[in-house]
Amino acid sequence: MKRYEIDERELPRLIREEPEQGMTLAIRLYGNPVRTICRNILAGCGSAEAEDAVADCFVSIWQAAGRFNPGQGASFRSYCYGIARTTALARRRKLRTEPVLPLEETIFLEESEDVFSRQEEEGLVHEAVDMMKEPDRTIFLLRYFYFFKVKEIAERLELPPKKVENILSRRKKDLEEILLEGGIGCEEIG
């Protein structure tokens, strides 16, 4: 097998043209974060469910590589992490367990039937998150992209849990405003 050192922007093409090498590289680059996302979302469902979700995720990445459009603002890495979240959340719903995050702590974007609109929405979300200052950005990513619990984030960053909650609340409000200004509606948060 060839050894590839490739720019992330070229990975979707590699997956389409040379699936074995492309997927090997995708797993090497994104395997650990995808596994973390799936395990956190499926916490309490058993490690086999999380590993099945990881496998399903990489199948979905392989199938979706041809639909990825880098001109829509999101990186392929973010696209893959989005697939991981969607896959794990779908598996969790299928298992009919409790939601990962309480309703009042979840940001809901309106469902878009148009893939290009959805990529544009995701690009706007990623831009907004990238503009956050530290430690707010890290806290927001750990909570809503990696599904860490507030207590885990607080311990990891050596902050009081209340401060983490306050930062999350402020950043969610900021994100809602940015999305509304960008023409993306958000459902009311509990």
Descriptive overview:
There is one protein chain. The chain contains eight helices and no strands. Helix 3 (47-64) crosses helix 4, helix 6 packs across helix 8 and helix 7 packs across helix 8 (161-181). It is mainly alpha-helical and 190 residues long. Helices cover 64% and strands 0% of the residues. The protein has helices at residues 11-17, 19-41, 47-64, 76-94, 115-131, 136-144, 150-157, 161-181. 26% of the residues are buried. It is globular.
Q: Secondary-structure element sequence? A: HHHHHHHH
Kindly estimate the percentage of residues that lie in beta strands according to DSSP.
Answer: under 5%
Q: Report the span from N to C terminus.
A: 52 Å
Outline type? globular
Tell me the helix content: 55-70%
Radius of gyration: 17 Å
Low-confidence segments, given as residue ranges, are 97-115
Q: Tell me the number of strands.
A: 0
Largest pleated sheet? none
- Overall pLDDT: 78
Protein structure class: mainly alpha
In DSSP terms (H or I, runs of 4 or more residues), the helix count works out at 8
